[in-house]
Structure formats: C-alpha cells, structure tokens
From TrEMBL:
It comes from the Eukaryota. This is Ribonuclease P protein subunit p29. SUPFAM superfamilies: Rof/RNase P subunit-like. Gene3D superfamilies: Ribonuclease P/MRP, subunit p29 (2.30.30.210). Component of ribonuclease P, a ribonucleoprotein complex that generates mature tRNA molecules by cleaving their 5'-ends. The keyword Phosphoprotein applies. InterPro entries: RNase_P/MRP_Rpp29-subunit (IPR016848), RNase_P/MRP_Rpp29_sf (IPR036980), Rof/RNase_P-like (IPR023534), Rpp29/RNP1 (IPR002730).
Length: 200
C-alpha cells in the first residue's frame, strides 16, 4: 500500500537525518531490531566574551584629581556631622557599646570597620613631628591616612611606624599602622591578631 511505502520512506529519511554518521546499510540493520536508539548531536554554542568595564588608571585619576579635597573644603567644622554619623555607625555595629561588653570584641569590630569620619590621634611615632596630630579621617589609602585637624589643616600621615588611638564612648582602641597597611575594602576580610605586638 502507498501509505506503508510513505511511512517507510519517512522512517528512513528520519533515521538518516538523526544519525548522520551511520551508513545506509547500518541503518537498515538497525531497522531489523525492535528498539532504535537515536543519536543526538547538539550544536556547540559559541560563548560571547564579556567586555570588562575598564576603570581609570592611576595616572588618569591623578590628572582628574578625583581624590583631592579643594582648599575651601578643608575645614574641620564641615566634617563634624560625618564624625557623628560614624559614631552612630559604630554603635550599631557593636550593638550599643554597652559597658559590660568585652574589650576584645569591640577591638575586633573596630579593626574591620570603615574609619572615614573617625577622630584619631597619633600617640607614638618614629617621627616625633607626627605625635599629637588629632583629627577626623577624611580618606584612607593603603599606606596613609588623610586627616583634617581642628586648625583646618589637612595632614597626610603614613601608617608605617605610627600608632593611632581611637576613642568612642569610653572605649579606647589602638591601631598599629605597620600592621594596618591595607585598603579599607580589604580589611573586612582580614583576620587581625588582637594580642599585643611590638610595633615601633
């Protein structure tokens, strides 16, 4: 009958299309069996390369003066609200800074906290001219702090060979700058030793 011939032709064509690596004799041999296992060939998808967003180079940042604070903005009074915000941030981070809190717990939180807005004092230094500098941290880089003092002077204080003290709600924390030479974003993942260390 014509229908059976059409069905046979369709099956042969379908199998040939489904199994392109098989010869006609092999396909006919497969047809004599009850079960036919079809092979599957998936087309390889070409992966599109993601374009990385290029940031500014260090030279471009310097030329654009992205991190420079204008002289008219270098006033201590302007940044006092930033300090108040920082104190609230630390209180929330330490769950209230209660008197019965263990000091090493507070110390651990402060070491990983963002220090922009904190008031710090240089308590020890290999360079005597740095000792006594007190002010609000405006910018923190890997190796230096930029601090605005009450005299409206912007000081660039290196972390190396300096010890900084930080006080909030009666808790005093000491930062050993030589062990603190990290970017603010890198500190959150670092484990600090809370034991005393010889720094200077």
């Amino acid at each position: 009958p014509q229908a059976s011939e059409e069905a046979k032709a369709f099956v042969n064509a379908f199998l040939k299309r489904s199994m392109p690596k098989k010869k006609d004799a092999a396909i006919q041999d497969i047809l004599t069996r009850k079960a036919v296992v079809l092979e599957h060939y998936s087309k390889k998808k070409t992966k599109q390369k993601r374009k990385k967003t290029k940031g500014f180079t260090a030279k471009q940042r310097r030329e654009m003066r992205l991190f420079e604070i204008e002289p008219e903005q270098q006033r201590y009074a302007i940044f006092l609200p930033l300090h108040e915000l920082w104190k609230q941030y630390i209180r929330d981070l330490c769950h209230g800074l209660k008197p019965d809190m263990q000091p090493h717990m507070v110390q651990g939180k402060l070491l990983k906290a963002d220090l922009h807005g904190a008031i710090v004092t240089v308590t020890k230094s290999k360079c005597p001219s740095y000792v006594g500098i007190t002010g609000i941290i405006l910018q923190e880089f890997k190796h230096v702090f930029k601090i605005i003092t009450k005299e409206d002077k912007l000081k660039v204080v290196p972390k190396l060979n300096n010890v900084f003290s930080l006080e909030i709600d009666g808790f005093i924390s000491y930062i050993y700058g030589s062990k603190f030479q990290l970017r603010a974003s890198e500190r959150s993942a670092k484990k600090f030793k809370l034991k005393g260390t010889i720094d200077l």
